[in-house]
Design a protein that fits this description.
Elements lengths: L1 E3 L2 E4 L2 E4 L2 H23 L7 H8 L5 H36 L11 H15 L10 H20 L5 H25 L2 H11 L8 H28 L3 H6 L4 H23 L5 H13 L6 H22 L6 H22 L1
Antiparallel strand pairs: 1-2, 2-3
């Protein structure tokens, strides 16, 4: 093995290592661990670091174990996994479309997943006991339908028209959801509204597995394709000349993006703007032309955990996490649209 300033060589292979990306990744891991600790410790009742360490090491009082392991741990794990999935999904979509305005929530993928999940919730009268797979499947189908609609109308679209198409499809999905909730039983409608607000309250182990089982194979697929994804930022013609099978790579990556978005939405409800903001933050931190995919996942997980912690501790009222992320992300979207118009 040979080590050079720009990478590591093993046998006949040489892997390029970007020092800044490595440093940013390490700092984001530290930030993610800090956000995990804060999310576990703070809430209506505070657990101090010593209590946290005691519980995680197998000790602690019964009350502390119940509070941490039964009430907060599932919520925090779901938040981190959903944020990572949305961060990766947004980075994939922005890399493939070569458009910083493209993200699953802005283009309507999240809205389609929400509509699919609400259809399942209403059809089952809000009771999914023994059917933990039903909402994720409905979300995937809804996300794929919207993705197919975008693919059918996105040929030759400029960024602004692509965003407008996404807004139109999101409005259509919103109308479907509003109609279903209006005709549903009040208890079922209340259940759907809580889910649509992207509240992480009451998250359990059954909400963890759909996202976790999607995220692990998705990372396994994305890591080998990350170099191809970065080449796509050079344009389809240039990427093809460098040996990248453009069409196949784009289809595979977009499918992964839709699946990650749909399953994250099924687990938490529609968390707005994380898939849009996380890749942009990552690209600026790493100073790369396109957002690194896995690093964007770290950013997304950190953002969702921080937003959830803020919703539970800093704000003077209890707010769902979707409201917090939307309030932070909407001004950033407006800025990008304003800059696109000026250009």
């Amino acid at each position: 093995m040979s080590v050079r300033p720009d990478g590591i060589g093993v046998g006949g292979c040489f892997v390029v290592v970007e020092r800044r990306r490595v440093v940013v990744s390490v700092l984001l891991v530290v930030a993610l661990l800090a956000a995990l600790a804060v999310a576990l410790m703070f809430g209506e009742e505070t657990l101090w670091p010593r209590q946290l360490v005691d519980v995680l090491s197998g000790g602690g009082t019964r009350g502390d174990r119940t509070l941490l392991l039964d009430l907060r741990a599932n919520r925090v794990i779901v938040a981190a996994l959903a944020g990572a999935a949305l961060g990766v999904a947004g980075a994939v979509m922005q890399s493939v479309t070569r458009n910083p305005l493209a993200s699953p929530d802005i283009l309507g993928i999240s809205a389609g997943a929400s509509a699919g999940a609400v259809i399942v919730i209403v059809a089952n009268d809000g009771v999914l006991d023994g059917k933990s797979w039903a909402a994720p499947v409905g979300a995937i189908v809804g996300g794929l339908v919207i993705a197919a609609g975008i693919a059918a109308f996105s040929v030759g679209m400029d960024p602004l028209r692509l965003v407008l198409a996404g807004i139109a499809l999101s409005s259509l999905c919103g109308a479907i959801v509003t109609y279903l909730v209006a005709i549903a039983d009040p208890e079922v409608a209340a259940h759907a509204y809580i889910w649509l607000s992207a509240s992480l309250a009451g998250r359990e182990a059954e909400h963890i597995w759909p996202v976790a089982t999607a995220l692990v194979p998705a990372i396994a697929v994305i890591v080998p394709l990350s170099r191809r994804a970065s080449m796509l930022s050079l344009g389809a013609v240039r990427a093809h000349s460098l040996g990248v099978p453009v069409a196949r790579t784009e289809r595979g990556l977009l499918l992964v993006s839709v699946l990650l978005t749909s399953l994250a939405t099924a687990a938490t409800g529609p968390i707005g703007f994380v898939a849009f903001v996380a890749p942009q933050i990552t690209a600026r931190l790493t100073r790369t032309a396109s957002p690194p995919l896995v690093v964007s996942g770290l950013t997304g997980a950190t953002l969702v955990l921080c937003a959830d912690a803020a919703a539970r501790t800093i704000l003077p009222w209890s707010a769902p996490i979707g409201a917090v992320t939307s309030a932070l992300g909407a001004p950033i979207l407006i800025y990008f649209l304003w800059r696109a118009v000026r250009v």
